[in-house]
Design brief:
By secondary structure, the protein is mostly helical. The protein contains 21 helices and no strands. Helix 19 packs antiparallel against helix 20. The relative contact order is 0.15.
């Protein structure tokens, strides 16, 4: 029995969203391994930052080329390629003998993340009915948060397992990977979900809008019928054909009057979201809590709590983003994060890190991010561009996001050593109010509009 309508759309979007799970898992799993790597390889602050941000360099490379590849070969094929790269990266991390080899493996995984991060939300957006698009694209962010949480839980489980078996002194393969050098088990565990992602992608269809662009109208209509029913599918197919016929399909279209505002938003909004310090919190959380006075196990536990709230509050966005609208969610997100970052910074500056205040401030921070910027940015950048160049334009937006991530992740260890953790978070806080002003002045409201209506909004 074939699924149709909402059930069919949700199933496809959940499969594409698995790329978000791997995004979250692959980029955050290093947080549990970095202390072991620092001690084993005697990493300097610069090398530590490079090891942490190397995956993000891969993300930049992946995002830079994924748009062209997805426009040329289709969204589905590039997602399959991303799954393959995740598998290769996990194997490489598990067998690495030097920091340089580990960096290369992390870059390969980062390219996979760049592919998935660029293509998956766009793929979901192009398949979703307008009334559900915000929620379904938000599922992608939910998958990221679930991946982050699972990486924390996996790290905590492996750390506990290693602590309880360290006295065994076995020379077995399992003891080497899961106890003696437990970081290998942490970084290699990504291979399991990557295999599932690869298999699931073999059963999803191609994006109907890409199919129309390539002239495969019959196949596109078949997908649209399963999503919306025969009557709506016919009118939507016609709207897509008309819209694509009016597009030039070149980057020059992005700097045309009206549309160029979409380009400015697509470059600025993702970068500003990363200046909130989210990668610092996600990747360095265990180390931050240890420096605040916690033991390794309790620091990992505190990190898992943050990961849990990150996932839970993403449900708020899924529930409300199509009702509240994109613009209010983003404005309140930047404003709320400014307050949270100020509280975290002052906790470190005043030395108030021993009780629950610091953990509570981090939970407030992650609750705001997860319910606003986390999903909101992906929703906006996945829906504001014309179909013919959506892949390449999404590449620019995703590239900006990963450049912001790389910048923040690479800079954090050096700033931490020079000015202290507290002042680093105050620096992040300073950026948030100008970011809220940017959204208020430039970002339009797009809730309830079809992708073709949004494109005509820019032209008018």
């Amino acid at each position: 029995m074939k699924l149709h309508g909402n059930a069919y759309v949700v199933l496809i979007c959940l499969t594409a969203g698995f790329g978000g799970f791997l995004f979250g898992f692959d980029t955050a799993v290093i947080s549990g391994a970095i202390n072991f790597l620092r001690n084993q390889f005697h990493l300097s602050p610069v090398m530590e930052g490079w090891l942490m941000s190397s995956a993000l360099l891969g993300c930049v490379i992946g995002a830079a080329i994924a748009g062209y590849l997805s426009d040329k070969y289709g969204r589905r094929k590039i997602l399959i390629a991303s799954a393959f790269l995740f598998i290769v990266s996990a194997i490489g991390c598990g067998i690495a003998q030097t920091p340089s080899f580990l960096v290369v493996a992390r870059i390969i995984g980062g390219i996979g993340v760049g592919f998935a991060a660029m293509v998956a939300p766009m793929f979901i957006s192009e398949l979703s009915p307008a009334r559900l698009r915000g929620r379904l694209v938000s599922f992608y962010q939910l998958a990221i948060t679930l991946g982050i949480l699972c990486s924390y839980l996996s790290n905590a489980f492996l750390l506990r397992y290693a602590d309880s078996h360290i006295a065994a002194g076995s020379q077995s393969f399992m003891h080497y990977y899961l106890v003696a050098e437990v970081w290998r088990g942490m970084l290699g565990s990504n291979m399991i979900p990557a295999l599932f992602f690869f298999i699931f992608l073999l059963f999803v269809p191609e994006s109907p809008r890409w199919l129309v662009k390539e002239g495969h109208l019959t196949e596109a209509e078949r997908v649209l019928e399963r999503v919306n029913g025969k009557e709506i599918a016919a009118s939507e197919l016609n709207a897509i054909e008309v819209s694509i016929s009016e597009e030039s399909g070149s980057f020059r279209q992005l700097i045309a009057p009206g549309i160029r505002v979409a380009l400015i938003i697509g470059i600025s909004l993702p970068f500003l979201s990363q200046l909130s310090g989210i990668t610092t919190v996600m990747y360095y959380a265990p180390a931050i809590f240890e420096q605040a006075g916690g033991q390794s196990g309790s620091a990992m536990g505190s990190t898992a709590i943050i990961g849990f709230f990150n996932m839970i509050f993403t449900f708020v966005a899924i529930w409300k983003i199509d009702k509240w609208g994109r613009k209010p969610v983003l404005i309140w997100g930047f404003a709320g994060l400014g307050l949270a970052l100020f509280l975290i910074g002052m906790a470190f500056i005043k030395g108030n890190t021993a009780g629950n205040f610091l953990l509570g401030s981090f939970i407030y921070y992650i609750a705001v991010f997860a319910s606003t910027l986390g999903p909101g940015v992906w929703v906006v950048i996945s829906e504001i561009y014309p179909t013919k160049i959506r892949g390449r334009a999404m590449s620019v937006a995703t590239l900006s996001l990963f450049l912001g991530s790389t910048f923040v992740t690479q800079l954090y260890p050096m700033l931490r050593e020079s000015i202290g953790i507290g002042y680093v978070f105050l620096l992040y806080a300073l950026v948030m109010l100008p970011a809220a002003f940017f959204v208020r002045k430039l970002v339009p409201e797009t809730k309830g509009r079809s992708l073709e209506e949004i494109e005509h909004l820019w032209k008018n």
